[in-house]
Amino acid sequence: xxxxNSTTKWVRLGDYIKRSMANNNNLKYGDELIEGVNSKGEFxxxxxxxxxxxLKPYKIVQNGDFVYNPSRLNIGSLAYRQNGMCIVxxxxxxxRLNDIxxxxxxxxxxxxxxxxxxxxxxxTYLNFxxxxxxxNFYDMSEIQIPLPDIDVQQKLVDTYNGLKALAEQNEAIIKxxxxxxxAYIVDCKKKYKIYELGDWIERRDERNLDNKLSNVKGLTVxxxxxxxxxxxxxxxxxxxxxxxxxxxxxxxxxNRNGDRIACGFCLETCLVSTIYDVLKIDETKVLSKYIFxxxxxxxxxxxxxxxxWGSAREVxxxxxxxxxxxxxxxxxxxxxxxxxxxxxxEAKNLANDARAKMKTLCPALVQRAING
Length: 372
Known about the structure:
Elements: E1 10-12, E2 17-19, E3 35-37, E4 43-45, E5 59-61, E6 66-68, E7 78-80, E8 86-88, E9 93-97, H1 99-104, H2 107-114, H3 117-126, H4 137-141, E10 144-146, H5 150-191, E11 194-196, E12 201-203, E13 217-219, E14 225-227, E15 241-243, E16 248-251, E17 263-265, E18 270-272, E19 276-281, H6 288-296, H7 298-306, H8 318-322, E20 325-327, H9 331-371
Antiparallel strand pairs: 1-10, 2-9, 3-4, 5-8, 6-7, 6-9, 11-20, 12-19, 13-14, 15-18, 16-17, 16-19
């Protein structure tokens, strides 16, 4: 069928791919090589029970193969193999480029075409069946794909792979950095005196009485300030609390926030609701960023929920917070821990940002190929 009137040639995918039916009939491969395909378009450990399973029908997947679940293709269950052979359920469809396809198509470019919401919508539209529609190899063969020059394909793939490498490089260092930071904290608990948090913090309850400030912020369970989502039209701001740089603000109610503390570290002077607690840190003894590092840890969320009180509204109050105990190493050690923690957090942020951009980059690159 005719799909597009652009200058880029559109072709029937089935003319460039072939199905692979090779299976594990001789039981050469064991269950340690079984993998599945998730909705993110990635290979993953199988979730199926393997006790007493017959491995003979399992299909063999080699580098360069595409694998998809015909019952879940519409939600993104299609992956491209690059990490060595594996075996997959006989229910999966396995295919690869044929000899003609190898000459005209960069396989990663084909994966970019598949890895788009537009492709998933197309599958949903074309799918048939009642309770469990399946998109078989014949259906896949009838898909029309753009076929730009192979050099153009490679340039687009290189762009995508550059962003992918950035994500993977940062993901690779998150775990060792996090583990090093945790080890540092455990060591501090053994080497340095433990104090109650109340020794270093005090409540700040300064109001915007002169009405000079209008920068109203909210807090999230992701431990950061955000622009308020409240309708501030006509709302008087005189009673709002002022938060200064290096202050910490938090919401004492815990049962309405997914068992997590909503808090933030202030970088610029702003206003917050009167229901928030604002903390001023005695920086002659402890770095405010060191304190906030403890707020950001998942252990803090668990501690706050366990120590919350109330019925319909459970609260981790200021007095409860003051009783929390943490070690007090020298300032230079505090800074070293904060630096290590921030490196891990920055790596995670960069990786997440790159992954998010990869998702939007796929359709952009394919559109670029279509437009020539």
